[in-house]
Amino acid sequence: MPYVLVTTQIRLERGPTIVGDEFSDTELMSYLGAVKKTEPGNNFAVYVAEHPPRLILNKLEVRGYKLVGMSGIGQTCIWTMHKPLPDHGGIEFK
């Protein structure tokens, strides 16, 4: 999984922090302390960690992720993290 989106509400900068969707790497989500939740009325699940975004971003950096973008949308902050894929000897994946 080369990209991870991290989001939180501005008024909740101490957490919780959304760190993945229902298709995210379960091992990484466990490392981040996130659990899968489905909010009433939604037909999709997200992984939520009770930690503040700063701690999540620090943990992702330890795992090799780098910040590639940050934005605010309404009352939500979004960070886009990227981890380069390992070199596969010139093999192209489609």
UniProtKB/TrEMBL annotation:
Where does it reside?
Cytoplasm, Cytosol; Nucleus membrane
User: Keyword Hydrolase on this protein?
Assistant: yes
Q: Which GO terms describe its biological process?
A: negative regulation of biosynthetic process
Q: Name one Pfam family in it.
A: GFRP
Q: Which superkingdom heads the taxonomic lineage of this protein's source?
A: Eukaryota
Record keywords, A-Z? Cytoplasm, Hydrolase, Membrane, Nucleus
SUPFAM superfamilies per the UniProt record, alphabetical: GTP cyclohydrolase I feedback regulatory protein, GFRP
- Cellular component GO terms, alphabetical: cytosol; nuclear membrane
- Residues in the signal sequence: none
**Molecular function per GO:** GTP cyclohydrolase binding; hydrolase activity
State the family named in the UniProt similarity comment for this chain: Belongs to the GFRP family.
Against PANTHER family, the record matches this protein to:
GTP CYCLOHYDROLASE 1 FEEDBACK REGULATORY PROTEIN (PTHR16852:SF2)
Q: What is this protein called?
A: GTP cyclohydrolase 1 feedback regulatory protein
Q: Which organism is it from?
A: Zootermopsis nevadensis
Species classification: Eukaryota, Metazoa, Ecdysozoa, Arthropoda, Hexapoda
